[in-house]
Structures are given as structure tokens and as C-alpha cells.
Amino acid sequence: MGIGDDAVEVRAQGWRTLAALHGLIETTLERGLGDAVELSVVEYTVLDALDRQDGWHMRMQQLARATALSPSATTRLVTRLEDRGLLSRVLCADDRRGIYTELTPAGRDLYERARPIHDEALERALEEAATRPELAPVVDALHDLALPVAG
């Protein structure tokens, strides 16, 4: 194996490690959110993204980027959440072609109930990952990347 092959293998191993950590976190979050508030991780991600916006709304394209979904998958997801009464769509006042998605009061309430469950499940997953020698360095790197919270 040449030097170039070694570098490729190192990157591939790093990617496998990151994927393993992601899988552990996602499984823990899915179980916690699904059992407690009947939300999937991606549904929670939509509510979280909308809650972080001023006025609690986003254009559909922004929401697609925030959830890492295709535009069509985002539309289907928003429709499901809208059918559950958690989101609503509003035409943009400046551009009639633009559609905003925003939280309803029920969506905001569900998000507020789901957030501590999400945060606890995430912490639990990271604590578990930190005990695994192959994942611990990535968990440490995540903690090093954490930005201070403005208070």
C-alpha cells in the first residue's frame, strides 16, 4: 500500500467512525423522541429549525437545507406535520410565489416538550459513545468544537 493509499484509508476510517457515532446518536434520538412525543429525528429537526427563527417561519428552501432533505422530501414532511396541526404554510407578502412554513401553537408546544427529551437522549448517546475507544476521540472533538452559549 502506497502513501496515497494510506491517506485514503485514514480518511475512510475517520468517515466510518463518524458514521458509527451518527448512527448511535440517531438511534438513541429516534427511540427517545418516538417513545415520548411521537416525533422522528427529522420531524424534530424541522420544529427546532423553525423555533430558532425570528417569527418562527422559514422559506421551504431554507428548511430543506436545515434538514438536509431534498425539496420534494421537505414538502412531504411539511405536509405530514401540517396534517398533524404542527405547522402551517403562509404566502410571502413580498413574493407571492414564496411560501413560508411556520410553527403553530401546537407545534411550538410539542417542540417545548420534545426539546428536553432530545437533549437528554443526545447527552446519553454521547456519554455512551465516550466509553467506546473507537468513538471517544470524535466525542472529545465535538466537545472541543462547542461554542460558548451567549447569556
Q: Say what oligomer this is.
A: single chain
Give start-end ranges of low-pLDDT stretches: none
Helix content: 55-70%
What's the shape?
Answer: globular
Q: How much beta, percentage-wise?
A: 5-15%
Description:
The chain is mainly alpha-helical. It has six helices and three strands. It has helices at 3-37, 41-51, 60-67, 71-83, 105-130, 136-145; strands spanning 57-59, 87-91, 99-103. It has a three-stranded antiparallel β-sheet with strand order 1-3-2. Helix 1 crosses helix 5, helix 2 (41-51) crosses helix 5 and helix 3 crosses helix 4. The mean pLDDT is 89.
List the helices and strands and how they pair.
Blueprint: H1 3-37, H2 41-51, E1 57-59, H3 60-67, H4 71-83, E2 87-91, E3 99-103, H5 105-130, H6 136-145
What features would you highlight for this structure?
151 residues, mainly alpha, 3-stranded antiparallel β-sheet, 3 strands, 68% helix, 9% strand
Compact summary:
The chain is mainly alpha-helical and 151 residues long. It has six helices and three strands. Strands 1-3-2 form a three-stranded antiparallel sheet.
